[in-house]
Amino acid sequence: MSQQPHGYMRVQPTPPAPYNIESGVLHRAKLYPLPEFDGNPEDWPLFYSSFADTTREFNYSDRQNLMRLQKALKGDAKRAVTSLLIFPENVPNILEELRFNFGRPELLIRAQLRKVQSFPNITEDRMEQVLDLSNQVRNITAFFKSARCEQHLVNPTLLEHLISKLPASKQFEWSKHASTVTPFATVETFAEWVGNLAKIIAIMPKVADKATHSTSFRAPRRSDQRPVIASRFLHSSQGNINQQWMCIACNQSHSLEDCPQFKTRNIENRWALVKRQRLCFACLQGGHNLQSCQKKKRCNIQECQRVHHRLLHASSNTHTVTSATTNNAEVVLSCQGECRSILFKVIPVTLFGPKGHMETHAMFDEDSSISLLEEDVANQLGLNGQSSSLTLQWYGENTATEKSRIVSLEVQGNQGGAPFPLKNAPTVKSLNLPSQSFQNYRHFGNLPVASYNNVKPTLLLGLDNSFLGIATETVTNGPSQLIAAKTKLGWLAYGPTDKMDSTSPRVLMIRDPPLSKKICNMVEEYFTLENLGVKAAVIEGEDDMRAKAILKSTAIKIGDRYEIGLLWKQDDIVFPPSYDMAKRR
User: Fold this and answer.
1) What rounded mean pLDDT belongs to the chain?
2) How many angstroms separate the CA atoms of 401 and 14, rounded?
3) Total domain count for the chain?
């Protein structure tokens, strides 16, 4: 055999088995079957090593190996070499073709990286998952060694992916250990370390209990299914074994859809629990997903056509917050309650646009991730911008979506100074911010803090323009007193006052829809315009209108035929003057 790149050997054809002179019959060697191979790159090293070892050990000929390959190859692997599975001399070519299609090192590495990426991040309350991570890391290490790809064990990107699966506390412990490894830590070093960590975690009481319970009953499942998350247990009564459900919401013996506690939760919490436990959206059970669920059907609540359980239905005035939309959420929180009067950070400003300037009031809100401007103000300043959508959500699960524009303008404090640009500020129909009044306090002295009476801000300055609200100077008279702060837009006052006030709570959340939603809206808007039914107006001439009128007024049925007047005939026929022509004749 000759050594090939990446540790693979070319199996040379062997001579036919000799005749036994005494018996005159051909020795028949036992054909040990090869493991089935369907084209999965992860199975290629085992398949090839089994082929090479048995061929070398039992001196199989190409004809015998061809018989073994015909039985072992399945699926994509067999389709790739179907035309070669005829003649024994094609065996070396078959192996080379299989190696190129399914055994190249990059394919093997990519398959292992997919395993790492699909492994979930481990949280502090799910430390038992470290055992699974340890097994996977050790398998990857052994796989790279058996495939003669040891160079990938020093891949820093792969090592970083593996470390990121650990909780923060264990990442810190690994970093301390890695700093003592010379010359540097590798995937093999991490496999040894996480293996020792798994041994410690395995003897923890809670983890040991979970392992005991998990082995007491294990439902049969296919290899492509996730483990069953909804817990089940067995108990014996008078010799009969009964299977019951253990609810993951309240740990009682009933299914999740029958759980009273689960039904009392709001829609967001129900969705969060189902996703956290990786349950099917259609039947609220584990072990499979929505695509493979045999009980899936449409919701049909309020004509909802989505495929999910009826307990997960969000009515028209509610919105289910998923992990994807949460990451794209732009949040604005402004809360007020029945307590001492509180002054928000309101300051008089001057706004500049193409049509001039306008004096108004702005409010700083450190809990807002974006700045907002009222639509009327944007129109008065002549601001133009790209259309967008904003989804407004209040407590009580009330939502509303309105059209918006992304505009840019300039803002200046009323105490002078250079104007500052405000870029990419969305507009809203009405901010509905609380109105407030302020009269200069005595302990502020001669500070130029502007007084105002019953003003309502039309501009909200969020964290995207937080540099405007940085306080360079502050003046205070002690705890629970107003604070004066100097910002780039001038002096302002905020904080608690001695006046008692009662106002309704205000909580506003504004979410910027994700890119996929924007694309859906664009496609929907496009087809809406295409289906307006607007057609080009057909302008008829006088002759056409007159012909239609004659057709309508003269058409009569006589027998099995219709009689219609002359459509081209004029009512006032004027003959050309022919007297002179007739006289010349």
Assistant:
1) 75
2) 76
3) 4
Say which residue, 261 or 517, is predicted with more confidence: 261
Q: Does residue 69 contact residue 34 with C-beta atoms inside 8 Å?
A: yes
413, 356 in Cβ contact below 8 A? no
Sequence letter at residue 463 = L
Two structure tokens written together for 554: 């003269």
Task: Classify residue 428 as exposed, middle or buried by CB count within 10 Å of its CB (0-12, 13-18, 19+).
Answer: buried
Q: What secondary structure letter does DSSP report for 294?
A: S
Kindly state whether residues 336 and 479 are assigned to the same domain.
yes
- Higher pLDDT: 159 or 207? It is 159
Q: Tell me: pLDDT of 1 over 50.
A: no
Residues 133 and 250 in one domain: no
Whether residues 299 and 442 share a domain: the answer is no
Residue matched to tokens 């009481």: 205
When mean pLDDT is compared across 98-102, 272-276, 286-290, 360-364, the lowest value belongs to: 286-290
Length of the chain: 585
Domain identity same for 423 and 334: yes
Is residue 337 within 8 A of residue 507, CB to CB? The reply is no
| More confident site: 544 or 288 | 544
Does residue 271 sit in the same domain as residue 345? no
- Residue where a domain terminates, one of 184, 212, 240: 212
Q: pLDDT tens-digit profile of 279-338?
A: 888 888 887 777 778 888 888 887 787 888 888 887 654 444 433 344 444 444 444 444
pLDDT given at position 93: 92
Task: Write out the residue range of the structural domain in which residue 257 sits.
Answer: 231-312
pLDDT at 473 over 60: yes
Of the candidates 36, 68, 103, which is a domain's last residue?
103
The secondary structure of 114-171 as a DSSP string is HHHHHSPPPPGGGTTHHHHHHHHHHHHHHHHHHTT-GGGGG-HHHHHHHHHTS-HHHH
Q: Is 529 inside a domain boundary?
A: no
Whether the ω angle into residue 183 lies within 30 degrees of 0, i.e. cis, is yes
Residues 270 and 392 in one domain: no
Same domain, 164 and 276: no
Please, are residues 424 and 408 in contact by the beta-carbon 8 Å criterion?
yes
Instruction: Kindly state whether residues 143 and 98 are assigned to the same domain.
Output: no
